[in-house]
Structure formats: structure tokens, C-alpha cells
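Backbone-to-sequence.
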């Protein structure tokens, strides 16, 4: 089964970059492009830069939120320019591509690229299972969005052609939508039992728990088990309240 990989561009400012990314994708036989809040699209510059990939560009789906763009994805990788990001695994493109292709054989996987100037926000990163960083000259490490996308698409193409080990799980990864439903229920239960962040700021608990479960890469059955556990807790509390 060929891996389903989605390229997601978030808050792209320059329409020419959207077209150039579409061309980079078609060069490497990728065809699933999602755009989140593009500042200018459709646009003549995007069409011009897409060159022979206008068909792919015209099929691109536009979303209002990152959650909507990755709702059916089981594994999400965010791109970053930072060498280290606290609480995240940061891979080079080759390792990240191999993981994306393996995950994409079970359920769609996604790569997120942020806005040209600021990259992905902390909110966007919280939706990622791992991060991808392209090593570059430390004296001039800035890569254009389209250049970065071309490198990542090339590595994805290589990984697709490699012989992959058989997946060690029969159940696909939980989708991003399923994970968001789980997190919403988890947060509700934490509030019901008055379990709060004991640190000085007291605001990081749910973020830490999300990172923990994202690193675990839960499958759909595991999420159902955890949600059943949370539902049981809620049921016990309601019965106690009734008595």
C-alpha cells in the first residue's frame, strides 16, 4: 500500500511559494496539498510558479484551521528551524520521511510548514507527534519555504521507494480528530476531579499531557480504551453525586 502523505502550508504569505511547493510536490509524485488560511489564494503568482503542476494546485484544499486540515491524519510532523525544541523529538528529513511513510501506509500522515517569517506557532506544534529540521550552514540557515518543501518532498520520495519493514501494529494510528476528542474529554475529567497543575504558573498541565500522548503515537483502539476509562470515571462521579 502506497503511503498517503499530505503537505500542509499554514498561514502562507506569498502566493508564489504556494505554487512553487505544488511544483516541488509534483516533481516527487506527491499530490495532496492542504492550505490553512493562505493570505492570497487563488492568485496569478501561485499559478505561474506552479508551472506544470497547476492541476495539483487547483485540487488543493483550503481550511480555516490546522485541526480541520489534519483531522484524518494519524501522524503529524511539524517543520522547525530550531535545533532543539523542548519536549519534542526533532528528526532530520531522512528519518522523518521514513517515519511519515511508514505511518502513511496505515492512515494519512502530514507535514506542516508554517508562515515564511515565523514558522509554526506553539499551538500548531502541540498538534505534532515529532518535528523535522533541515540541517544547514549555521551562519546562514534560512531556507525559503519552497526550498525546504523540495528537500522534504525529495526525502519522502526516497522513503517511498525504500523497502519498509512491515508495520508492527494492525490498527492504524488514531486520527488527529480522534485525539482532539480524547483531549477534550481528558480536560473535562481533570476539571471534574479538580486535578490541576501544581507548578507555580499552573497552566501547563494539559499541554504536557498532550505531548506525552503524542509521543506515544496511540492507535485508534488505545484511544477508545482511554476514553472508555474516562467515561467510567465520569459515570462513577455522577452516581456519587446522585447519592
Amino acid at each position: 500500500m502506497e503511503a498517503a502523505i499530505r503537505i500542509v502550508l499554514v498561514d502562507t504569505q506569498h502566493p508564489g511559494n504556494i505554487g512553487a511547493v505544488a511544483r516541488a510536490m509534483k516533481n516527487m509524485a506527491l499530490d495532496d496539498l492542504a492550505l490553512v488560511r493562505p493570505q492570497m489564494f487563488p492568485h496569478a503568482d501561485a499559478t505561474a510558479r506552479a508551472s506544470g503542476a497547476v492541476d495539483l494546485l487547483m485540487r488543493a484544499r483550503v481550511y480555516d484551521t490546522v485541526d480541520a486540515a489534519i483531522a484524518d491524519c494519524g501522524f503529524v510532523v511539524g517543520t522547525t528551524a530550531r535545533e532543539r525544541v523542548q519536549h519534542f523529538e526533532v528528526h532530520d528529513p531522512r528519518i522523518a520521511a521514513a517515519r511519515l511513510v511508514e505511518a502513511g501506509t496505515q492512515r494519512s500522515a502530514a507535514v506542516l510548514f508554517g508562515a515564511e517569517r515565523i514558522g509554526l506557532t506553539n499551538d500548531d506544534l502541540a498538534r505534532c507527534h515529532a518535528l523535522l529540521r533541515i540541517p544547514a550552514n549555521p551562519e546562514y540557515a534560512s531556507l525559503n519555504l519552497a526550498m525546504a518543501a523540495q528537500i522534504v518532498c525529495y526525502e519522502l520520495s526516497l522513503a517511498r521507494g525504500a523497502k519498509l519493514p512491515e508495520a508492527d501494529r494492525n490498527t492504524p494510528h488514531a486520527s488527529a480528530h480522534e485525539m482532539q476528542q480524547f483531549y477534550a474529554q481528558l480536560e473535562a475529567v481533570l476539571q471534574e476531579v479538580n486535578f490541576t497543575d501544581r507548578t507555580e504558573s499552573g497552566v501547563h498541565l494539559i499541554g504536557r499531557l498532550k505531548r506525552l500522548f503524542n509521543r506515544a503515537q496511540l492507535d485508534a483502539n488505545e484511544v477508545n480504551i482511554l476514553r472508555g476509562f474516562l467515561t467510567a470515571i465520569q459515570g462513577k462521579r455522577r452516581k456519587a453525586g446522585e447519592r
